[in-house]
Design a protein that fits this description.
There is one protein chain. 48% of the residues are buried. This protein has 449 residues and is mainly alpha-helical. It has a 3-stranded mixed sheet, covered by helices on one side.
Length: 449
């Protein structure tokens, strides 16, 4: 294939990727440089990355409290260009963010157009309505992801959202490619992206488990899938879990899978406290703080925080004491009963799309207004997402099941732990893809009536 034919064949995703990269480079270098927002969580990630470069083997008690993936990735440009090379780190974050654009384009086109979509899209001699619909949906997905404010705005912050969005969306694409073609390279891509994504945010393991279950239980629908090949492809997941166990034991003397803050998050979700204070400091989810303030301002507000014990809790133990935090969560469950816990779960799901603004953009204008407006716009994708999830749960659409497994995991994790707009943002590329697939199918059905 000549360079000219390659560019012609792939011109759309190349152009959309260039657009997404340009938007993000301008954002991180001229509008919202991440080096000007190194505070709170951002300062913690930067501090751990700098420490990893300067003292990679030293034991540090807080190292195992958070998932290690984000600051390991952030440490790469620091190791190459120096621990204070924030411009290089910003460019690295922009590149990671822009890489989501072609993945969304390819995922949407393949989901709607089938395994042969990319070749058919350029080789067909006759007009094809199905092919045209897949092309249009893929281009729309790529364009929306390229210019979506919630997605590109996080490239201006050294947080986990950018790498997690990339690895989550890539895992879904490789999973779909694997069930379509059964290739070893796609099995490895599926497992590798899932492993790296779980190192950034362990919640990806929930979606991975659901996707693997669908592949195994519906394998008769996937003629090219080899379960042995799938098992080999998941070796990176086993490796990252083993590394995490060794790493956490090295730093704290306790072996934990991926992060030791899971118990704290569970305590928040089960107790509905806006702050938990332990020995050495405290923490509070911004979304819960928003609900608490709304309830204080208007007792009739809905939804509002409904504390199991008290809105602010004090624990005579460090925040990373998993036993103490799990005991607190268990006590709250006993106090409330399953009925109130179910109400908590529904509130968490609502927080994914409303009643709060994604942190830290909730702290400052004009970003708060921009984020609120885009969050409202994203409600347009919710009906399509729900239909896509229902399709994936049925026997008729097993390919959709592999992709929407990660959307089901978003809902499940929010119900079991807690939810917020920030928690949802990394899933937005998948939500856009799933919704556009449904809307394109509905349009095609309507035209053929």
């Amino acid at each position: 294939m000549t360079t000219r034919s390659f560019l012609r064949r792939h011109r759309w995703w190349l152009a959309l990727t260039a657009l997404g990269l340009a938007v993000r480079l301008v954002w991180v270098h001229y509008i919202h440089p991440p080096e000007e927002a190194i505070w709170s969580d951002m300062a913690a990630y930067v501090g751990r990355a700098e420490r990893l470069v300067s003292d990679p083997l030293g034991p540090h008690a807080d190292e195992a409290f958070y998932p290690f993936g984000t600051h390991y990735l952030l440490a790469i440009p620091m190791a190459l260009f120096g621990p204070k090379a924030y411009d290089a780190c910003a460019t690295w974050w922009a590149l990671l963010g822009a890489a989501v654009v072609p993945i969304a384009y390819l995922l949407c086109g393949r989901l709607l157009g089938g395994a042969s979509w990319l070749s058919d899209a350029h080789d067909a001699d006759e007009p094809d309505d199905d092919l045209d619909a897949a092309n249009a949906a893929a281009r729309a997905a790529g364009l929306l992801v390229a210019v979506d404010y919630p997605l590109f705005s996080y490239t201006g912050l050294f947080l986990s959202e950018v790498p997690f969005t990339l690895l989550l969306t890539a895992t879904a694409l490789f999973g779909l490619r694997f069930v379509d073609e059964g290739r070893r390279v796609d099995a490895w891509g599926f497992g590798t992206c899932a492993a790296l994504g779980a190192a950034v945010r362990p919640q990806l393991l929930v979606g991975l488990a659901l996707a693997v279950a669908i592949i195994v239980l519906r394998r008769k629908h996937f003629e090219k899938v080899s379960l042995a090949r799938l098992g080999v492809g998941l070796i990176p997941v086993v490796a990252i879990v083993a590394f995490s166990l060794a790493q956490s034991h090295h730093h704290t003397g306790r072996a934990t899978i991926l992060a030791q803050n899971g118990a704290l998050n569970r305590a928040f979700g089960r107790c509905h406290a806006y702050e938990i204070i332990g020995q050495g400091g405290g923490f509070g989810p911004p979304a819960f703080g928003t609900l608490w303030r709304a309830g204080q301002a208007d007792p009739a507000a809905w939804p509002k925080l409904d504390p199991a014990k008290a809105p602010k809790l004090f624990v005579p133990a460090p925040m990373w004491d998993e036993e103490a935090m799990n005991a607190l969560a268990d006590e709250c469950v006993q106090r409330t009963g399953l009925g109130r816990q179910a109400t908590y779960a529904m509130t968490h799901v609502g927080l994914l799309w409303g009643f709060n603004v994604a942190w830290p953009f909730s702290e400052v204008e004009p970003h708060r207004s921009y984020m609120r407006g885009w969050m409202r716009a994203h409600l347009l994708f919710v009906p399509g997402m729900i239909v896509a999830m229902a399709m994936g749960a049925s026997r008729r659409w097993p390919r959709h099941g592999v992709v929407t497994a990660f959307l089901w995991s978003l809902i499940l994790v929010a119900m079991l732990v807690m939810g917020s707009a920030r928690f949802r943002v990394p899933y937005d590329a998948l939500i856009i893809v799933a919704a556009l697939d449904v809307y394109a199918r509905l349009q095609r059905w309507w035209q053929r009536r």
